[in-house]
Amino acid sequence: MVEQQEASDDAVMTRIGQAIMLLHGGDREEARNRFGALWSELGADGDALHRCTLAHYMADTQDDPGDELAWDLRALTAADGLRAAEGPGGGEGPGGAAEHRDTPAVRAFYPSLHLNLAADYLKLQRPESARIHLQRARAAAVSLADDGYGGGVRAAIDRLELRMREE
Q1: d(Cα 64, Cα 122) in Å, to the nearest integer?
Q2: Between these two residues, 96 and 125, which has the higher pLDDT value?
Q3: From CA 86, how far away is CA 80, in angstroms rounded?
Q4: In terms of pTM, does the model score above 0.90?
Q5: CA dihedral (38, 46, 109, 73) positive or negative
Q6: What is the longest distance spanned by two Cα atoms in the chain?
């Protein structure tokens, strides 16, 4: 039964990955359509990592900054939902349940989630909210590895901070 669930999860991530490839290939409309269909299939009780990943990338398909913000907030809510499901210690040990298998992946999303929210708020001319999320992005980035992803996210945080200082 566990193997069947993992295969099902892999199929969903494969479909999300295919839509991401469309997005990165420039077909925002088709990516948006596929993300929308998947979002409907997942529902409110769908896997937190799937919902977080999907909403994170769905935000990038939006034309309206308010819609982009709404999707980025959905991604953060999904990530926070996984963290809350772990219970009060956030991991194994006294007061906390065992760490969910997707927790490390979702944790790695936090810097990018907050960075995107900071950029959204900046677009919407809400600089105080942008600063709050930029600070949260920087704080969460300390947990990222010193690899291409971690370095890229930290560089993007630095660029947005510089842009905010210049405005």
Answers
A1: 13
A2: 125
A3: 10
A4: no
A5: positive
A6: 55
